[in-house]
From TrEMBL:
Organism: Cirrhinus mrigala (Mrigala)
Chain ranges of the Cadherin domain: 30-136, 137-245, 246-350, 351-455, 456-565, 580-677
Bilayer disposition of the protein: Single-pass type I membrane protein
Subcellular location: Cell membrane
GO molecular function annotations of the record: calcium ion binding
GO cellular component: plasma membrane
Stated name of the protein: Cadherin domain-containing protein
Keyword Repeat on entry: yes
Known function: Potential calcium-dependent cell-adhesion protein. May be involved in the establishment and maintenance of specific neuronal connections in the brain.
Alphabetical UniProt keywords: Calcium, Cell adhesion, Cell membrane, Glycoprotein, Membrane, Repeat, Signal, Transmembrane, Transmembrane helix
Keyword Ribonucleoprotein on entry: no
Stored PROSITE patterns: CADHERIN_1, CADHERIN_2
Pfam families named in the record: Cadherin, Cadherin_2
């Protein structure tokens, strides 16, 4: 038997080299279909098909797209060699285990590619090899047949089973010897074969009380396989009539959710014999393992009841052989076909075949977010499913081939408005009542650099006292960027400009991380009173985005300059004297002390005081204007030579001051004054520079 199996494998491997490949390209941006046909029992590693060539794909695309197989079944019979683009056997495939008696036998899978998302459907058909011989459920069949059994009586024989299909399945029976019995072969509606033994010559118990026959079941493989069972016939004494069923075939329909103990149908058979010979008992014959625990027949009444749980998704129809038997062994045969009716007892199952959980906010409408598989084991309308989204969102569901759906974008996305979505998928079948299932997925919107940093205001103002320390902070600028991550990381820069011919960086600096503006040097109000600089906030995106803001820095004055006396001019070479005639009245204007302070504000407000005088009772100084006037009438007793010291003081904190000496001569004429004060020089208004300074100050 092993040799036959090896021969079958070798022949099928040879056949595999000649198998045809049917390639169907569906004109779609994401799908394609190919079909391969291979024999069962191939060794792992054997070649199935060149998917790269058959799909028209470059092998590099398989590698870059991280090609992988998506298989509905829990077992993976084949695997993909991405480097070669070949589909090879991964695990030995037993067609009978995979599909049972179903033919053709195939399974589907998808090849999934990423970046962009593409998937291709592949169907692999498994061809049967003759690796099973027909087998009878019993080693020996014992029949009791009355000697008066008429010629032509039919005896239903045990059916052999062969899990192979097609020509490799059970094809015929043979019976030896055929002295008293002939063999008739029949086919059921599903194509299976069964045999009946027909009495073709009268039995005589007195001549031979027991007959021994060999029933052989033969399949159609090359070479064929066979199985045998021994039939022992015990010849009984006369019983002329066999039971006859009321119908040659019974039919019944049962819902798959029917409860145990339910009466399915009542069968009946009659026997023309009288008395004991006419008693009939009912039984199943040749019942399959799948039906053994599901149905029971009452031997006395013929009531057939349900004893197990039906499942339409597993088996849709049962075919039971019925037998009515009298006490002497005569039998009648009939058949019961039970159709299982589907009910909507399976909810749809949602599977995320491919889903990364994130998508960029600049993805255009129609971008595929996820590939979703929805399966419902029910049939007809009960298995027809609609997939939808429970809430309104910028996403929609589109249907693809083979019960697949794609989740795609339906509107523009904006992470700054909504950074993530919790989407609830709802799968609803069309059964009555309908069943549904839900699955919630989380989808994050990843950021792109679509927002520039923005300052809270376009222009900032700040103040700093002159004579500041280098490095002192002036103010902190702050910009906001609604993007995330590196796209929201802001750096601050000083825009290059010139201040009085020098780069602005020689006056100010900006901390790139926190936007704090620092003074690089000490400022002098008397030199520059106002600065206007420009700062740029730039994010870390690619390409980076930024915005500018202006900063106006006002330098505030400090009292760092003392008043300067412009008049009278103090000269070491000569002394200027003011002349007061002896006839001067009270309030006579002797002269005016003129001073300036380069500071500003109250630091430049000047006051004048008389600090010392030869005769304090004769002169006074105007506090605000610096005018020196006589307080009383000049008399002959007043000294000719008068010396006044005037203090000029500003209003700063602390205040600064300057002093000036004023010489006054009390005389009626210039010669008189010269006779006493030879070291004094009278002022020359027209030629002295001081005159012009006073005039300019007055203007």
């Amino acid at each position: 038997m092993q040799d036959n199996k090896g021969l079958q494998l070798r022949r099928c491997v040879k056949w595999q080299a000649e198998f045809s490949i049917f390639l169907l390209f569906v004109l779609s941006t994401v799908t394609g279909q190919i079909r391969y046909s291979i024999p069962e029992e191939m060794r792992p590693g054997l070649f199935v098909g060149d998917v790269a060539k058959d799909l028209g794909l470059d092998v590099k695309r398989l590698v870059s797209g991280r090609a992988r197989l998506v298989i509905d079944d829990s077992r993976q019979y084949v695997e993909l060699n991405r480097n070669k683009g070949h589909l090879v056997v991964k695990e030995r495939i037993d067609r009978e285990q995979l599909c049972g008696q179903k033919s053709p036998c195939s399974f589907g899978l998808e090849i999934l590619l990423e970046n962009p998302l593409e998937f291709f459907s592949i169907t692999i058909e498994i061809q049967d090899i003759n690796d099973h011989a027909p087998v009878f459920s019993k080693k020996e069949i014992i029949l009791e047949i009355g000697e008066s059994t008429p010629i032509g009586t039919i005896f239903l024989l045990d059916t052999a089973t062969d899990p192979d299909v097609g020509l490799n399945s059970l094809q015929s029976y043979s019976l030896k010897p055929t002295d008293n019995f002939a063999l008739k072969q029949h086919s059921r509606s599903d194509g299976s074969k069964y045999a009946e033994m027909v009495l073709q010559s009268v039995l005589d118990r007195e001549k031979q009380s027991e007959h021994s026959l060999i029933l052989t079941a033969i399949d159609g493989g090359d070479p064929p396989r066979s199985g045998t069972v021994k039939i022992v016939i015990a010849v009984l004494d006369a019983n002329d009539n066999a039971p006859i069923f009321a119908e040659t075939m019974y039919k019944a329909s049962v819902a798959e959710n029917a409860v145990k103990g339910m009466l399915i149908i009542k069968v009946s058979a009659s026997d023309a014999d009288e008395g004991y010979n006419g008693n009939v008992t009912y039984s199943f014959t040749h019942i399959g393992e799948d039906a053994t625990h599901l149905f029971q027949i009452n031997a006395a009444t013929g009531d057939i009841t349900l004893t197990g749980n039906l499942d339409y998704e597993t088996v849709q129809q049962y075919e039971l052989n019925l037998q009515a038997k009298d006490p002497w062994g005569l039998t009648g045969a009939s058949k019961l076909v039970i159709d299982v009716v589907d009910v909507n007892d399976n909810s749809p199952v949602i599977t995320m075949t491919s889903f990364s959980g994130k998508i960029q906010e600049d993805s255009p409408p129609g971008t595929v977010v996820a590939l979703i598989s929805v399966q419902d084991l029910d049939s007809g309308k009960n298995g027809q499913v609609r997939l939808s989204l429970e809430q309104n969102s910028p996403f929609t569901i589109k249907q693809s081939p083979r019960k697949y759906y794609t989740l795609v974008t339906d509107a523009p996305l904006d992470r700054e408005k909504v950074s993530s979505f919790n989407l609830t998928l709802v799968a609803l079948d069309e059964g009555t009542p309908s069943l549904f299932s839900k699955r919630t997925i989380s989808l994050d919107i990843t950021d792109i650099n679509d927002n520039a940093p923005a300052f809270s205001q376009r222009e900032y103002k700040t103040y700093i006292l002159e004579n500041n320390s280098p490095g002192v902070s002036l103010l902190a600028l702050q910009a906001a960027d609604p993007d995330a991550g590196q796209n929201a990381r802001i750096a601050y820069y000083l825009i290059d400009t010139d201040v009085n011919g020098s780069p602005v960086s020689s006056y100010f600096s900006v901390n790139a991380d926190n936007g704090i503006v620092h003074a690089v040097r000490s400022f002098d109000y008397e030199q520059i009173k106002v600065f206007k600089i420009h700062v740029r906030a730039q994010d870390g995106g690619s390409p980076p985005l930024g915005s500018n803001a202006s900063v106006i820095i006002n330098v505030q004055d400090q009292n760092d300059n003392a008043p300067q006396v412009l008049y009278p001019v103090q000269s070491g070479a000569s002394v200027v004297a003011e002349i007061v005639p002896r006839s001067a009245d009270v309030g006579y204007l002797v002269t005016k002390v003129v001073a300036v302070d380069v500071d500003s504000g109250q630091n430049a407000w000047l006051s004048y005081k008389l600090q010392k005088a030869t005769d304090r009772a004769l002169f006074e100084v105007g506090l605000q204007n610096g005018e020196i006037r006589t307080v009383r009438q000049v008399t002959d007793k007043d000294a000719l030579k008068q010396r006044l010291t005037v203090v000029v003081e500003d209003n700063g904190q602390p205040s600064r001051s300057a002093t000036v000496n004023v010489n006054v001569a009390v005389a009626d004429s210039f010669p008189e004054m010269l006779s006493e004060f030879t070291d004094f020089t009278h002022k020359e208004y027209n030629n002295n520079l001081t005159f012009y300074l006073v005039l300019a100050l007055a203007a």
